[in-house]
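@here heads up, posting the sequence + SMILES for the pyridoxal-5'-phosphate run so it's all in one place. Ping me if the SMILES looks off, I pulled it from an old spreadsheet.
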Amino acid sequence: MRQAIANAVVGDEQKREDPTVLELERRAAELLGQEEAVFLPTATMANEIALRIQTEPGDVLIAEEHSHVFIAEQGGPAVHAGLFTRPLPGYGGRITPEQIRAAMTDPRSGHEPRTRLVALENTHNSSGGRVWSLDEIDAVIAVVRELDLRGHLDGARLLNAARALGVPAAEIGRRFDTVTLCLSKGLGCPLGALVAGSAELMVKARRAKHLFGGAMRQAGIVAAAGVYALDNHVERLADDHARARRLAEGLSAAGIAIDLDAVETNFVQIDVAPFGLTKAEALERLKQEGVGLSGTVHATKLRAVTHLDVSNEDIERAVELIPRALGVLVRA
Ligand SMILES: Cc1ncc(COP(=O)(O)O)c(C=O)c1O
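bot reply: prediction finished. Complex structure tokens:
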């Protein structure tokens, strides 16, 4: 990837003269099952642009309550698009068509805000990298269309979802009006994301990109990493999933209660409540043992993530070190 970055052919991206950015956008549009894609610095910006270009201030955005757009974008939907947010309680990060129907405002009302957009997240970060099946997506999108709403997919980890479902990413992406893909997660790029949609919507996305201060110059330097990742880091996501499974099974065998059915992609969630530890205490103990996990939005749950810098040996070490750090062997 460093070599690809060094060799990148570049031009002025703001003028759409950077051939590497154009190539990445072309590849991403095809990958995501959409007409066009726009290269952006981050997936947060990609989500926020997607919300802004499909709504008007005062419109209602429906999403699962622990979606990234609600819990981790600093209230961006309100700040950047003036949206009124309607968080719905989910099951494994998913919401149902019935919930959307029940949350729907009256489009003919002179008083109620207009419900406009439903945003789904696949895989869903805070539920532990859980996957929406195609049937579940279809059921929600059918209601979105019936109610004349728009559908956005926060597909920051869409390629993990596609891998878990065994379908091309385009099969998932094409069902939505807009799709976000992040390059700096499992794909291993230093930065970068894309938003994709119809050619008409992407004209608006390019304008919003400039407005948000995201229009760049010789951005091919980083887009080259994205092209490299699409060529070399997609198939290997299966390794991350297999390692997460091995980690979950190893920890489970060592006496840590893990919901194995919830381990569908590259995350393993660990509840530290049974060890009488707070998240901060557990993270500190893990750090002392040399294991880097992160917190989650949940009161007592930590998150382990497998990615291209985590090897089989690292997983075996983690299976030894995590129970020790959490005091499992002492209690056994
Ligand atoms: C589901 C989801 N969407 C969007 C983002 C934002 O990504 P970025 O850090 O590129 O802004 C994240 C980051 O963790 C995420 O998990």
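MO: The chain has a mean pLDDT of 97.
MO: One more: The chain is about 45% helix and 15% strand.
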